[in-house]
Each structure stands twice: as structure tokens, then as C-alpha cells.
Amino acid sequence: MCEEHTVSLVDVLEEDEELEEEASAVLAGSDSDHCSYPQGYVKRQALYSCNTCTPKGAEAAGVCLACSYKCHEGHDLFELYTKRNFRCDCGNRKFTDLQCKLYPEKDDVNTLNKYSHNFSGVYCTCRRPYPDPDDQVEDEMIQCVLCEDWLHGRHLGREVPENNESQEMICVVRQVKEETGGRSNTDVAPEEQVDDVIKPSAKRTREEAELNCRLKELQAVNQKRERSGAVFWPSAWRSTLCSCNTCQERLSGAQLSFLLDESDTVVAYERKGQNNEQNQQGHDPLMSALDNLNRVQQLEIIHGYNDMKSELKDFLQRFAAEGKVVTPDDIRHFFEQQQSRKRRRVEAAPFY
């Protein structure tokens, strides 16, 4: 096997915790046991599209996390990451041969749901799947906060900044500039100007707020900038949008009211998921069981677990160092050895 194509088991073990954190950030913010349909159009949730039930050419449909587990197990699913303001379609009219096991009483169609080519398993302006077996170029996919499509960095029409993790990407610039009077990361107002220009103080009258409309200021100086390519704005850019009544009405008419909601961001959703995961860990059944044991028993179990974890890591490291593949028989032999050592320790223990 070529060394450049070899993945070390040690590397896998070290990356496992990071992968779990990423998964919990996406999934822990959604309910994995109950269909989200009764909640209506959920503010943001993890979604999937089932290629088995709604193949190419059929009406687009999306299912929630719980339905992907309970109703579509073993199906060919497209992971959509998260979408905003969506109601679960599982088992409605679009699914001719499937009834939702978790919440079968659904309307024929969810009229307010929005669908895109993502629901067919393709992304970006190039309309390619992800991962793409025919694409040999290493390139990250970035989600637009407006259309929520995922785009290749090389197809954004501009160079991707190095610190893009802390920014939100918008692939359609003109719509945001004209509808909201927002600013890019190169011309964000200083903190001392935010209250005076962008966010009118609550003490001011409605008329005064309208006079300080940021969008009107831009229009007065003909500052509708035509730009090509996507923009990356700092995570707090939403707080700089004008929220006067006129701008709120314009945002509502363009179905962009969510831009004034800072909790709409994927970062806020992931933070919620991480908090949920931590709370669940705080109620771990194993820890509850340990609470019912005395101090000596607790220490014995904890030390035994840590010893087994350390021995398993050492066991896998030997295979990695020798470039060998770990088989089910190897794993079975490892645990048989563990049981054998445990029996010897018990038999060797003195009897009082």
C-alpha cells in the first residue's frame, strides 16, 4: 500500500473527538427521536432528502433528523446540513409509498417550504454532488447565508479569506445592499457610529428613526455598489443593519426578515447543539449508575475503564506502526485477553 494513501489509526483516534464535536454541533440542535412536523416551520434544523423515496424527477421533499433515522433507515439520503423555516415532509403527498412512522397525520404539502437543487443531491453553481468522485481539486464548500446553497470556494468569484470560519458568506451581493443598506467587511461602521447611523436609539421618535435610515443615506449618495463575486462579512454584521420600520417592511416583502435575527445564524444553531450535548452528558445513565455506588466501587470502575482505553489505544498503535489492517478477529482477541486478565486478577485476589 502506498504510504501517501495510508491513514494511521492513531490519527483516526486523535480526530475522533473532533469529529464527534462537529457532528453534535449539527445534530444535537435537532430532535433525533420525534418528528419536527408538530413544531411547524422550524427556525433551523438538520434536514435530509431521500433519493430512494423521491428520486430525480419527483417533487422535492425534505425530512427531519428523526424521520431520517426511523422512516428512511437504509435509504439513499442526501445530507442537506441545516435549513431555516422548514417543515418536515416525511410521509406527505410527495411520498407515494411511504407513511411517516413518527407523525403520520400531515398535510398534503407544506406550502411555505423552499426547495433548491440541493434536494437533488447537487450543489454550487456547477450543480455537482458532494463529495464529487470526479472532482480531483481539493476545495472547501461554503454555505451562503441567504440562499443556503453550498458553493465551492473557487466558484465564488473572489478569493476566500483565511479567517472565513468567523464570517458569513453571501453569494448575492446586490440583493443585500439594496434591500438592507448593509455593509461589507471593508466598510463596517465604527462602534461609535452604529447607534447614530444603523440602529436608531429607542428614545428617538419614529420620525427621527426614519430620518436616520441607513438605506436612504446610501441611496442619497448613490452608494449602490456593483460588485462581482461573493462577500464575506464579519459575524456581527447583522447588528449593523438598519431596523427602521421602512427597512423592516422591505425585508419582509423580500422574505429576508431573518437577517435581523442574530440567532438565525448557523453559529448560534451549532452553539445550541453543543449546549444540548453537554446537558445530555450531564445526565449520562452511566454516571447516574456510578452515583449509586460507594467510593471504592466508583474508583475501581473508573480505573478499569481508563486501563482498557489505554490498552486499546496501545493495541491499535501497534497495527498502525506495522501498517497492518485491524480485523474483527483482532478486536475479538483483544477483548478475550481483557476478560482473561480480569479472571486471573480475581482468582489471584486474597480471600478474607
UniProtKB/TrEMBL annotation:
Pfam families: zf-UBR. The keyword Zinc applies. GO terms for molecular function: ubiquitin protein ligase activity; zinc ion binding. PROSITE patterns: ZF_UBR (PS51157). One of its GO terms (cellular component) is cytoplasm. Keywords: Metal-binding, Zinc, Zinc-finger. The keyword Cell wall biogenesis/degradation does not apply. InterPro entries: UBR7 (IPR040204), UBR7-like_UBR-box (IPR047506), Znf_UBR (IPR003126). A zinc finger (UBR-type) spans 33-105. Residues 33-105 form the UBR-type domain. This is E3 ubiquitin-protein ligase UBR7 isoform X1.
